[in-house]
Every structure is written in structure tokens, then in C-alpha cells.
Specification:
Elements: H1 2-20, H2 26-47, H3 55-80, H4 86-93, H5 97-107, H6 114-137, H7 144-164, H8 168-171, H9 175-198, H10 207-235, H11 237-240, H12 243-258, H13 265-282
């Protein structure tokens, strides 16, 4: 259920982000998102009776997660969508399963099973077909290579924070408290990046903008990140990253209903392969802690 809930929510956020970068600097949109999410995450931690004390090691970890996940990842994702369609960015971010599995092997000593490798190969073939379909249906202009570079950097930032939060220090502190402090540190980094790259704060007057920001902050961040990080700890970083594959399928289904997305044989084949790979990889033996 947490896996499905995260996929459903994150699958819808790609379309909301488009409205957040229309006339508003990407960096300031990231700031407003986590300026709303951070106090909400602290309230969740307090409501659940979690101690907000992390200790020096816990705060260092929260700072690293905040800088990588809530600053680096989102700043590069929002910038990638300036140069690429949201579909292509979503598909590229679904490749997270590769660095997640490799980093988990290197940093957490989690084994990579043969079944996971087979499932990953099938899913990657499906993702490649989806990426090809998106490129054909919605050709992008401008600085395409720059957009691809931003998406890859965003993926690597997310992967690093995904894996590092599951280390011994992260396991020893309450998840909600760790995320609250990480979001706070990330927001501070976001403000610094926005001031340097985009100048003084830009505060939109549109109600639709702030409703979208609230959706991204509360559902897209406060609700989903505790669930997703818990999935990483229970399933292993590689298998949990398959949530990104499910997110792409959900995003395409939502687009079919709301934006008249037209399926092609290429897209359907890619979706089938991606889901088949997901099922095979998730049926692999749970990695040792």
C-alpha cells in the first residue's frame, strides 16, 4: 500500500510542477515548496511523538540529505523541465534503480541478486521504449543536452540521499525527525541557491500557483517521503527505486484521462516491459540488512 500510494501521488506531481515554473524562477518555486513542507514535517514528527533530538551525527546526516535531496535534486528537476518535456524527465528519473542498486551495494553492502538483475534489464528495455516514444511524440527544442544533464544530476542527487539515509546513523533516529531537519537544511540551501541564481524573491499572486505548491509540499513531500524512505529500508534501495517505474506508468495513465495522451504500440510495449521487470525485480529475495 505505501508503494502504491507513493507512486500515485508522485505520478501526479510531474504535471503540477509545469505550472510552478511558468513565469516563476525554478529555484524560488523550490523554496516555496519546502518552506511549506518543512513546518508541516515538524508538526507530523511532534504529532507522532517523535523526539526532535538527532545528536551531532544525526544532524550531519540531515544536512547531507537536505543538500542532496531537497536542494540539489529538486533544483535540477525543475530546471530540467525548462528544457525537456515532463514525460521525458519522469522517464529519465525512473532510471534511479541503477545508481540506487550500485550505491546500496557499495555503501550498505546490500547484495544484487540475479533475479533483480534480470528484472532490471527487462525494465530498462521498457524504459528505453518509453523514452523513445516520448522523444517522437513531443520533440523538444532548445538546450536539450543541458536538460538531460540536469535530469541526470537530479537522479544522482536523489540516489545518493536515498541510500545514505538508510545507514546506521539514519536507522538510529526517528524517520520523521530526520526528514524534518533535512527539509529545514535543504530549504536554507534552496534560499541561498535562489538568491545567487535568480536574485530577490519572486512571490506569485496566483491562487492556482499556491494551491499547486501546497499539493507538492504536503502530498508530494510530507506524505510521501516518510513512506518512500521506509520502503528503502524494508525493500532495499534498488527494489524501492522501482517506485519510479510505477510513477511513470501512473503519470502516463493520468495524462491519458486528463490530457488526451495517445498510446502507441511503442509506448504500450514499453509499459508492459517496465511493469514485467518491476514484478520480477520486486519478487527477488530481500537484501540482507
Amino acid at each position: 500500500m505505501p508503494f502504491a500510494l507513493v507512486a500515485l501521488i508522485w505520478g501526479s506531481t510531474w504535471w503540477v510542477i509545469i505550472g510552478q515554473i511558468d513565469g516563476v524562477p525554478a529555484s524560488w518555486s523550490v523554496v516555496w515548496r519546502f518552506a511549506l513542507a518543512t513546518p508541516a514535517m515538524f508538526l507530523v514528527a511532534l504529532a507522532m511523538g517523535r523526539s526532535l533530538r538527532l545528536g551531532a551525527a544525526g544532524h550531519r546526516l540531515a544536512l547531507v540529505i537536505g543538500a542532496a535531496q531537497f536542494c540539489g535534486n529538486y533544483n535540477f528537476v525543475y530546471r530540467a523541465e525548462l528544457h525537456l518535456t515532463s514525460g521525458i524527465v519522469a522517464v529519465m528519473l525512473s532510471l534511479l534503480l541503477v545508481p540506487n542498486a550500485m550505491l546500496a551495494r557499495a555503501l550498505l553492502k546490500q547484495p544484487i541478486t540475479p533475479r533483480f538483475l534480470v528484472g532490471s534489464a527487462i525494465a530498462l528495455a521498457g524504459i528505453a521504449l518509453l523514452l523513445l516514444h516520448e522523444a517522437r511524440e513531443a520533440p523538444v527544442g532548445g538546450k536539450v543536452l543541458l536538460g538531460i544533464a540536469f535530469a541526470v544530476i537530479a537522479m544522482l542527487c536523489a540516489s545518493f540521499s536515498n541510500v545514505i539515509q538508510a545507514n546506521e546513523t539514519g536507522q538510529a533516529v526517528p524517520m520523521e525527525s530526520l526528514l524534518a531537519w533535512a527539509m529545514l537544511y535543504g530549504t536554507i540551501c534552496d534560499v541561498a541557491v535562489a538568491l545567487v541564481t535568480s536574485g530577490p524573491p519572486v512571490i506569485p499572486a496566483s491562487l492556482a500557483y499556491w494551491l499547486g505548491t501546497a499539493y507538492l509540499a504536503i502530498l508530494g513531500s510530507v506524505v510521501t517521503f516518510p513512506l518512500y524512505y521506509t520502503l528503502i529500508r524494508k525493500l532495499g534501495a534498488g527494489r524501492a527505486a522501482y517506485n519510479g517505474v510505477a510513477v511513470v506508468i501512473v503519470a502516463m495513465l493520468i495524462s491519458t484521462v486528463l490530457e488526451d495522451y495517445r498510446w502507441s504500440l511503442l509506448a504500450a510495449a514499453g509499459a508492459v516491459l517496465a511493469v514485467a521487470g518491476l514484478v520480477i525485480a520486486l519478487s527477488a529475495r530481500r537484501p540482507a540488512a
